[in-house]
Amino acid sequence: MTKLLLKNLPMSGKKVLMRVDFNVPLDSQGQIADDTRIRLSLPSIDYILKQDAALILISHLGRPNGDTPSLSLEPCGKRLSALLKKEVLFCKDCIGPTVKLMTDKLQPGSILLLENLRFHKEEEHPNKDFAFAKSLASIADVYVNDAFGAAHRAHSSISAITHYFPHKAAMGFLMEKEITFLQETFKHPKRPFYAILGGAKISSKLGVFNSLLSKVDALFIGGGMSYTFAKALGSKIGNSICDNNLLPLAHTFLENAKKNHTPYYLPTDHIIAKTFENTSNSKIVSAKEGIPEGWMGMDIGPQTLKTWSQELQKAATVFWNGPLGVFEFSHFTTGTFGIAKALASLKATTIVGGGDSISAINSLGLQDSFTHISSGGGASLELIEYGHLPGIDALSDV
């Protein structure tokens, strides 16, 4: 099915409700640490404002428990205002009389950002109460989804809301760009095609691992989830993070990789620490030696970084998702930074998805050295696994 695109959506004189992904990383002071996702929404925002339309933006931020002031979208509104050099109005709720009052007064060319959608539990549970989606929809004439980073969530503002915009729910420019590039690349990758998967949790990625077996020519597994695979192979992992319930499935995956003749790379050495702290004493151990009790894996080791960097030189296409160590601690960023630099030097098609991976690239100033930086880590992984996303499926067909 071909979906309705923003450029084909009549909107002159109308109120446009656009779902964006302003789920930006925040620092310890609650300030925006990286505004990449806000910047990526600018082409759609600029276009809509130039169509003599009034624009209402909605988004989530983090995982609030009810009304959580530290996760207010107001700082995002201020950053957007600075980027646009234009006033961005802000409403301290996303439904209710105040929202209705402000949207009724909104003039063409104006822009309003509503408060964090997840302050209302109905956002994440549309099947329990469609009234939330209906209330959101009531303030606008047409709907645009430009939140690729949230397109894998069947939430009120992503999928349920489109029921109230028949033939008027369109795909924004960022969403269109992401879907077009990723689907084409995953369908017809230049080979060899390598994937690097990191991050802490294996539970959300096992399906992706299995899907990748038939697609990639080699798989590199780092981050916290690599210790579950290491333990499944009988290695000592000390006090490292491990999902013991998934050990059998991890072992089955590795056996399937062998049967499929898909090479996989686990860390051959580790940087380990006594405690989960940035200032903790650390040392390097080989994977063969194993991680002793009382110690935990914090990053891939120097030999792993060297070996992986050399292997990656052979690639024609690389997809990278997730950090390779405890990236939030500055003492354990070596592996993630090292792989970012190695990928930036390649002449291959390089695709990066996931907030921490993008933060690493941005902090090194390597943004322009990658072919495609995806705004959605989870969404890109689910696109690999299933080939479609709830947020795309829900949009109007043409």
3D structure, described in words:
The structure is a single chain. The longest helix is centred in the middle third of the chain and has 15 residues, at 173-187. The chain has 14 helices and 15 strands. The model has no long low-confidence stretch (mean pLDDT 94). The radius of gyration is 22 Å and the shape is elongated. The protein has helices spanning 36-40, 42-49, 74-84, 97-105, 131-137, 173-187, 206-212, 226-232, 247-259, 302-312, 334-344, 355-363, 377-386, 390-393, and strands at 15-19, 54-58, 89-91, 111-114, 142-145, 169-171, 193-197, 218-221, 264-265, 269-273, 282-286, 296-300, 317-321, 349-353, 372-374. Helix 4 (97-105) links the parallel strand 3 and strand 4 (111-114). Helix 8 (226-232) crosses helix 9. The strands form 3 sheets. The chain has a 6-stranded parallel β-sheet, with helices on both faces. A 6-stranded parallel β-sheet has the order 9-8-7-13-14-15, with helices on both faces. A 3-stranded antiparallel β-sheet has the order 11-10-12. It is 32% helix and 16% strand. By secondary structure, the chain is an alpha/beta fold. The N and C termini lie close together (8 Å). The relative contact order is 0.13.
